[in-house]
Each structure stands twice: as structure tokens, then as C-alpha cells.
Amino acid sequence: MSYKSISRISLLCLIYISCNPPSPFVQLPLSDKSETHRIILQDKLDSLFHKYQCSGLVITITNKDSLIFSYANGYAKMGEKKPITLNTYYRIASISKVFIALTIKKMEVDGLLNLEDDVSKYLGFKFRNIKNPMVPIKLKYLLNHTSSLKADESIGLINGDVYRSPLKVIFDFSDSKNRDAISSYWSDTKPGEEFAYSNFAYLILASVIEKVVNFDFNDYLKQSIFLPMNLKATFNQSELADSLIGYTYRNIDGTWVAQSDSIYVSKHKKRQFGENLIVYSPMGGLRISALELAKIQKEILNLSSKGKIFGLPEKSFRELILDSIVTKDKSFEIYSLGFHHTKQLNVGEKWIGHPGEAYGLLSGWYYSPEKSLGITIIIPGSTYQSTQTEFYDIEKSIHSLLMTYIDLIDNHAPNPR
């Protein structure tokens, strides 16, 4: 090789390094074949983006060491034509439940509570299924949706004033005037026996957190979970710069309409800790970016070597995952303590995480223990249809493309020496 060729290569390397400084998440250079596969995936995702009329789409794939693929297309705020990025923060919907579960488990490890305890112990009133009042409702029953609270669509509370009432007012049946209303919230099954997906269960868990620590729910999660990992994630949108926030959208008669889901909590407004946490929408109100979700997956994938995540020992984290049940719900065939287990991303492979759906947004956050990979998908707005399975049609289309790509780059990985 000539001196000029060497100098040219050196100069190009210096330019590349100066334009791409090291970061905690380095996207590693790919082989020529892998780069071809990446370009093909990018093109196919572009086609899918238009097919499903997306307002935006963000995807990451990570392994133990790095972000190996990323995609961001569309607008964070359509009116401003503000491009979406990996650092755009969204109300991530039910992926939020994972972090409630992690916090509850960490509190158990710290000796602040026990998952086998009766929830009444922490709420300050007798919290029971009025139809089965002698059966205690354990904290773990709220985590795995077996508390015997009816599924959300069966209660009709989501937009009701009752959702904003103090929990004691909603559930304490010692006042005979409330018995009929309270009875409508509960199924006939005994606590611990049957799965019914309940957002209300995680609203109650958030109240338990505040009651036990006597501290603001969002501030506690930030201090114990998010800030130690240098994450900006928050349940209070007012803590994020407006430039970081992305809107969720619904397509109404061909027009994208931004959804009203903002949660701004005044630090000066006094409230009783644990009374009702709907102000934070803990069951789905976490604001977080795709990049931060990928960073958390990377920590989980390295758990065996690091021994802890969010200060939670590996053994305790595994307990959240392993304590699973098989359900009759087509949307959640296997569920553990705050985590969804699925084999529908790729046939025969178990992926663990959680889906999300709210205000037009669809999201998915899953990792594979076998493949040591994590994927994050955020769709802030699109047109989609049910498939009567665990995922919508757009999600299944994305999963198919991502799994094909993963298989191809696995096959072209260099042989170990």
C-alpha cells in the first residue's frame, strides 16, 4: 500500500473519530453483508411506515455491548415539523408497569414491605373483594393482575370521576351506601385465582409506594431507579424540556390529532401521600425515550456479570420474571410480576418485557435471554387493526422484519476462534 493511501485512510479515520465521539452506546461498524441487511431493513421499515400511515416510528435493537440497529422516522410534533429522534420522550403507556414492579421488589429487598402481605396493611383501610371479603388480597396479586378486580373494559372507570377519588372512598365498603358501586368493580373469582388485566391494580401499587415511604411517588422512583442510571425518565412531564417531548396522535378522518395526555404536577400543591396517584397516571404515564429504554435492556442483558440492576440483586430480579402464570387472555398469554412473556415475536423464542397502548401510541419493550438482545418499538400514531393475538398488525409486521434481520446478522457474524 502506498504512503498516500495510508495517509488518506488515517485522515478518514481521524475525521470519523472527530465527528463520532465515544458514547455509552456506540453503534459498532458492520460487515459489508450486515450493512446491506441494515439498509434493506431501513427501506422495508420506510415502506411499512407509509403503509400504516405512521405519524412517527422509533426502533432500537441492542445487545450486551452496543446499539446494533436504530430507526427514527416521522415527527415528534407534527405541527412544528419537529423530527423524531431516539432521544424523544414519550408517554410510554403500560411499559410503565415494569418500573412499578421493580420499585415494589426493591422495597421488599430493603425490608419495607412483603409481596405476600395483605394490601390493606399499607392502605390504611380494609381492601377486599366485597364478594369474597374473607380472602386477603396480596401485593403480588396486584402485580400479576390476579387481585380479582375486573379487567378495565369491564369496569368503565377510565374516564369516570371515581378514578380521581381517594382510594378509601372508592373501595371501602364499610359504608353501606357504596356497596352496589363497589361490587361492580370486582369479579366473582377469589383473589389469586384468575388473571384480569387491571390498570387500577397499578394505581393502587403506586399508592402503596407513597404510603410506605411517605414521599412523592415520582421523586422516589427517580431517586431509587432512574437517576442512578443517569436517566431523565419521569412521570411528571413538566420536568422535561419541551424540546424533548413527543406527542401521541390519532388519525381522525385523515387528519392527525394530537392527544391530550400531558401530566403536569405542581410541586407546590399539597396532597395526602398515597391517597390517589392518578395525578401521575402510574399505570402508563412514564415519560422515557427509546434510547433510555435500550440502555435499561443493556443493563438487564449484563445482569449476570454485574449482579444488580437498579440496586436490585440478580436473584430478586429473576424472582419477578420466574413467578409467572398462564392466562386465558389472548393479549397476555403468560404474565409474571409486572412482566409479559411472549413467543409471538419469533416462533419458539421467549421474549420478556411489556407492551403499551394509550392515546394513539403503541409501544413494545422486550428482551431475549437466549439471544441476549433487546428491542424497543415506539409508534406514537398509526392506523392499525387487531389480529386477535398479543399484538396488532403493525406490530407483527415490524416484529417479522426485525427477527429476519436478527437471524441474518447472526448468520453472518464472524466464527469464534
Short account of what is shown:
The chain is an alpha+beta fold. It contains 14 helices and 15 strands.
How would you describe this structure to a colleague?
The chain contains 14 helices and 15 strands. The strands form 4 sheets. A 9-stranded antiparallel sheet has the order 3-2-1-15-14-13-12-11-10, with helices on both faces. It has a two-stranded antiparallel sheet with strand order 4-7. It has a two-stranded antiparallel ribbon with strand order 5-6. Helix 2 (32-51) packs antiparallel against helix 14 and helix 3 (96-109) runs parallel beside helix 9. The chain is of the alpha+beta class and 417 residues long. The chain starts with a helix and ends in a 6-residue tail after the last helix.
Main features:
single chain, 417 residues, alpha+beta, nine-stranded antiparallel beta sheet, two-stranded antiparallel sheet, 15 strands, disordered C terminus
